[in-house]
Design brief:
- The complex is a heterodimer of chains A (about 180) and B (about 120).
- Chain A has about 180 residues and is mostly helical.
- Chain A is about 75% helix and about 0% strand.
- Chain B has one domain.
- In chain B, helix 1 runs antiparallel to helix 3 and helix 1 packs parallel to helix 4.
- Chain B is elongated and about 55 Å long.
- The chains are: A mainly alpha (about 180), B mainly alpha (about 120).
- Chains A and B meet through helix 2, helix 4, helix 5 and helix 6 of A and helix 1, helix 3 and helix 4 of B.
Chain lengths: ~180, ~120
Amino acid sequence: MQITSREFWTLTHGMFFGAMYLLAFGGGFAGLYSLRPQFITAEGISERLMRLRWGTVVMAALVWLTVIVGTYVVYPWYRAAPPETVDKATQSEQLREYPRYWLLAGESTAAWHTFGMEFKEHVAWIAPLLATIVAFVVVRHGDELTKNEHARRIVIGLFILSFALAGIAGLLGALITKAAPVV
Amino acid sequence: MATTTKTDNAMSVLENELGTAIVASGIGAAVLGILVVLNDAYAAVNGMLVWVKPVGALSGKTGISVIAFLASWAILHFTMRGRSVKLDTMLIVGGILLAVGILLTFPPVFEVFVDMLKGGE
């Protein structure tokens, strides 16, 4: 049971950093949603805010790490071009080492790149922008968020959008890896 | 009275900083979306966006969008400080920019714009 270094980094990108971010969403959402004086005591809010501040900062760090490792470590392996001696139009065993080209060589697999990867590689980068502003507002204005329902709903909305975009990228990544793994 | 004023100020700062942050994230997203279109439409733009060769143009597209996000956030944060701005207005502006950015990263959408730009050549 061995994994290559490329598989290790692909797992780190998707199953560690990415998955941890997505899993943490539930706790973050519950924390933000329950940040109301009518639901919990002042002591409870104080305790919850401390966790939320740490939690949103860690989540922002996780999603930045996800996109950075994905783009600068895994993506070059995915998009690497095969040598001239390898036929780019046939899905051969040799071409399998070049996932992007392998996918494009098949009629039934080309869309995994032209749609799947082309969408995922870009939309994923919007998730950390949103996660960062959520963390910023929670850290700086956590106390005020408990009293300003409108602002809190907006922050929750941004948090959900960040999760949704990361989720789309994660799902597409898992399906693309299934079709053409980086080996 | 002093307590109420302090609370009002805190709320005003929260809404101001939340609003500017939303607009900044929208700018970052919109810049990314526009670069996705321009990169595919013009070979010269593609060449300028290859900052890290193994990563290709994705390095420039995302690099510029992150710079745009951070720079616009810093500018907006300090220039809008102390000003009375409606949070909902900034939410609408930021929301539209975010929507533009997300839509332009969606291949069926950006390909339409790429074809339009290429067709105009």
